[in-house]
Each structure stands twice: as C-alpha cells, then as structure tokens.
Amino acid sequence: MSSLSVGIDVGGTFTDLVAVDAAGAVTTEKVPSTPSDQSDGVAHALELLDGAPVSRFVHGTTVATNMLLERTGARVALVATHGFTDVLHLARQDRASLYDLARHHPPPLVARDHTVGARERLVPEGIHIALTDAAVAEVVAEIRALNPDVVAIALLHAYADGTHERRLADALVAALPHLEVVLSSDVFPEIREYERTATTVAEAYLRPGVSRYLQRLTARAAALGIPAPGVMTSGGGMRTVAQAARGAASIALSGPAGGIVGAAAALRAAGFANALTVDIGGTSADVGLILDGEPLIEPGGRVAGVPIALPRVLVETVSAGGGSIGWIDDGGALRVGPRSAGAVPGPAAFGRGGTLPTVTDAHVVLGHITAVALSGGVMLDVDAAHRVIGELAAKLNATAERVAHAMLDIADASVARALRRVSVERGVSPRDCVLIPFGGGGPLHACGLAEQLGMRTIFVPPHAGVLSAVGLAITPERRERMVSVLARADALGCDALRAALDRAAEGVADDPSWDRSWTARMRYVGQGHELDVPAHEGDDGAALAGRFAALHAQRNGFTLDAPTEVIGVRHVASGAAHPITFARGASSRWDPANAIDDGGRFEARLEGPAVVALAGATLRIARGWTGEPHPTGGWLLSRAERTA
C-alpha cells in the first residue's frame, strides 16, 4: 500500500478526513466533532486509517477562531510607545454598525491597565527619543508587577526599525525567563500602527493556547504512528507544526482556507476559471472568490471582531449552517441563526437530543434529506424533525412545510448577501462566475443561491462533502515574508526594486525546486488603502505602476492622475502540491443511497426537482434546473432559459 497524504478539517458538527494515495485516489471519512477538545475528534478520525502508512498529515483547525470568539486566550500585556498606549482603544473610530447606535466593536484583547508605555520614540528620520537603560528598567518592573502570560511589544514605527523592540525583548527575557515575548517587527512589519498593534496582540493572545493544542495533537498522532501535523494557514498554504505554533494569528481561518484551495483545484480540473464558492457546514457558511483558477488573497480583515492584518484567502463567514436555529423575534417575525445547535446536541433530526428547529430539520421536512444513515454514524430521526418544525409552525399559525421553506429562504438570503459582498464589491459580476457549493449543506442550497444571484451554472465538485479536507491533503508547503519599502514607484529603478525583492526572500526557503513569487502592496500617494500587485525580477517601479493602474481600474472602475507608491513587498515560496485524481468513480468510499446513489455509477441527466446522495452531502436539483454527472466526478447544473 502506498503512503497517504491525509487532510483533516474540524467543523462545528463533523470532523472530516481525506486520505490521498500516491496515485491521487481519494478515501473519505466523517466523525462527529468534539468541541470540548478538537484533538479527540481528530484522533478518532485518524484511528479509522487502521494503521495505513501516512507520509503527510495536514490539519485545518478552528482553535484560534474559537479562542477569539470565546475570549479564552492568554493574559497579555502590551508595551507601546509612551503617549501612544491607547491605540487599541482609539482604533479606527468607525462604527460597528452604521445605523445601530447600540452596537459596539468587541473590546480590545488587552485592557488599559495591562498596557505599559515605553519612554522612546522613533520617527521616519531616525531616533527622536532614545530608549535609555532607565526606560528599559521601568518597563521590566511594570511587566513584572502585571505578571502576564505573554508580552506584546508594538512600538511606533517599528515596521521600519525594530531595534528598540528587540532591546526591550532581550531585557524582559533576561529578567523573566519564563515569559513569552512577541514583537510587531517580527509579526507584521508594515505601516498602520493600529493594525500592526492589533495583529501583534492577537498573536500573543493566541500563541500559548494554539501551542498547547498542537502539542497535544502531535502526541496523539505520534501514538498512532502518524507524523506531526502540518497546519493550514489563513493564506492557503501549509506550515509545520512548530512554525504554526509560532504564528498562531496566521491560522485563524485555517479550515475555510482549505475549502477554497480544494475548490480551486476542482475548478481547474473542470476547465473553469472564475467562481464564487460557498461552504455550508453545521454552524456557518463560508463564501469566497476564485479568479483565474486561484483563490483571491487579501491583506487581512477582522476575525471574530479582532483585526488581523496578515494575508488570508478571501473568506466571509455568516451564521447560516445546517444547525442554525429557527426562532421568532419580539416582533413576531421568523428568524434563522446566529445561534446553532452545533455538534452537541445537533439538529433534532440527528437523534442526539436536539429539541430546537434547525435548517437541517427544515430540509428533512421538505424531503430533501431522506437517507436513514447519514455521514459520521448519524441515524436520521424524521419524526423529531417534523415535531420541532411543527412546534415552530404552530406559533406562527402556518403549516410546517411553509415554515420550512421560509427558513431555507432566510438562510439563502443571508448567504447571497455575503456572496455579493465578496464579488460585486470587487468589481466581479456573479453572472460571470460558476457557483461551487460544498460542505454538507452547500449542494442543498446551491440552486436557491444561484437564482438569487442571477447565476446559471453550478459546479458541484467531487468530494463536495469533505472538500475542505481535500484542500488540506493536497495543499503545498508554503513560506512567506514581508518587508517595508515606503517609496514612490517612479523612484524605484530595477536595482532598487530588486534589492527589496531580495530582502523579502531572505531566509524564506532554501529549496531551489520551490516556486517563488512576489507581490508589491501599492496605492496612489495619499490613498488610504492598498492593492497587491504581482512583482517580478527585472521589474522597475514603472512596470509596477502600470499593473497597479490596471488592477485599480478593474476593482474600482477608475484610475487617478496621481503618482503611486510601494508600501511593502511580500515574498512567497511554495513546494509542490500533492497529486489528486478528479475522475468519476475514483473514490473508494461512498455513503448509502438517498434518492439516487451517486457512487460513480450514475450517468443520466436529471431534470429538477431531484435529490442526489453524494459522499457526505446531498445535492438538490431545483425545478427549472438540470443536472448531469461531470467527468471529474462532480455534477454540473444548468438553469433552463426562461421563455416569455
């Protein structure tokens, strides 16, 4: 037996395992997630390999995201430049909601009484206030009194010169050897004090908990004879467990990134270029964008209300999963989410004690899910689904079927709004894209979402129910580094730009077989946001300025008659992706039949309405749509042309 590349994705309800052998053949498994300790569910999934040889194990985890949501991270003290210690609280002075005056941003991860001011200051011209021995001693004494778990140091203009940060770190470690110290000049050496400080604090807040989890998971894998896990980053590449433990903030969107990587691979295999993706699981839906066969990478954003400015695959999450609970608000209107039944107890239809009506229960009532045995050992309880939806319907004085339809329409509307945000706001028309639905619930909602967006083509990828784990199993190892530049493009000749590219590449990866690429973060002088532009060896500033103008016109619909500037340069080095075979019948394990068993054998074209049981998911073909098996092992759905 050839060795396997294994990907394991932890979701809110199920933990998915995908094993890909050297020839690219795929085996899949699902087990219930274990929210109290994700490593339990991962270990249960690994046990199903029955001792098969594993050469690589890549993990997608929500541990970091959950810590931010639940505020269960480390106790952090922040060292900032004296006079600038309120940067986290001042933030960007924007409202959490434009029209809801009662809504507020989550509080910072560090309280004011755990922020220490260092008497120093760097300015663009150099040292304005020198960091003296006495100032260093003051900081050490205050940190000793606070006794934090981790110290984050984010000094003014440290993106350009980290000397003062390193000096403080050395002094703190010498005086308090047990203390973990995180520097902004290491984590995010780019302009914008608030984003740099917030990202550094997030790294400090997450690092101990992520490190403990990965150590525990590594030990459990070793006990099963499986190598230490690699971890998917938010940017769509894999890092070793040691690197992930030292870059905890970079794995905040670990699982969703795996799904986009898997979707992009399936999209390329099917011969499409541009797609909107939607991954609907048990607790939420993640939407993304693929352009020219590659996931769109953006410079960062908020995760659970916390700004993390590190590069990430574009993913927007909404609370609309299979476990989202239907309820009635104070005005008597039907609502769906954001509360979820999750893995425990789960939807009522799962027969595990759930008593609240969920989106999954609505699908059961409407006959979209009928299989007796579901993935992960779940047995369908149809009577329980009818009971909880019926109780909700009685409160609304409506039929159970009408309420079930309304619940699905509400969930679809929420996801469709997110799909518009990731596409239309970036100058991309949904009508020019293919919709790729995956996760356990994605194919169930695909037709409804496509109709709301005016899309006419849906590609349900092979292994749709576990596509995030597919992306983990095949993703290449990846390293990246950024450096600050801050120079006008017209002042950058070939030699100056090449020097910046070389600085960004220092120490990233020594393997000559790895692919290397650079991007320049650029803006018009005076502009408040940047775009990432491809950069190549041999370029000068004029070449970058031309690419920037073209991208700016595509994204925003206009260009300015103004000079451009390069804020920073990022270098990415990637190894080879693991091979995978996308072909009908290539999988070795399929779920029992639902309405139609797509075990790689079904070849007929279907007219909606129809339901197809996939591996780990269910495909619903709505009225007005046709579906046919695709050579890759997926399904291609087309919307019939409407006639007057």
Judged by helices, strands and strand pairing, the structural class is alpha+beta
Average pLDDT reading? 90
Number of DSSP strands?
33
Low-confidence stretches: 587-601
**Which outline best applies?**
globular
Provide the β-strand percentage band. Answer: 25-35%
Rg, rounded, reads 25 Å
Strand order of the largest sheet: 3-2-1-4-11-12
What separation lies between the terminal Cα atoms?
59 Å
CATH architecture of the domain at 73-208: 3-Layer(aba) Sandwich
Largest sheet: 6 strands, mixed
Number of contiguous helices = 16
List the topology elements.
Elements: E1 4-10, E2 14-20, E3 26-32, H1 38-47, E4 54-60, H2 63-70, E5 76-81, H3 87-90, E6 115-118, E7 121-123, E8 126-129, H4 133-146, E9 150-154, H5 163-175, E10 180-183, H6 184-187, H7 193-223, E11 230-232, E12 238-240, H8 241-245, H9 254-270, E13 275-280, E14 285-291, E15 294-295, E16 297-298, E17 301-303, E18 306-308, E19 312-313, E20 315-318, E21 324-328, E22 334-340, H10 359-365, H11 382-396, H12 400-423, E23 434-438, H13 442-453, E24 457-460, H14 467-474, E25 478-488, H15 494-505, E26 515-524, E27 531-535, H16 541-556, E28 564-574, E29 606-607, E30 610-614, E31 617-621, E32 625-629, E33 635-639
Parallel strand pairs: 1-4, 4-11, 5-6, 5-9, 9-10, 13-23
Antiparallel strand pairs: 1-2, 2-3, 7-8, 11-12, 13-14, 14-15, 14-20, 16-19, 17-18, 21-22, 24-33, 25-28, 26-27, 26-28, 29-32, 30-31, 32-33
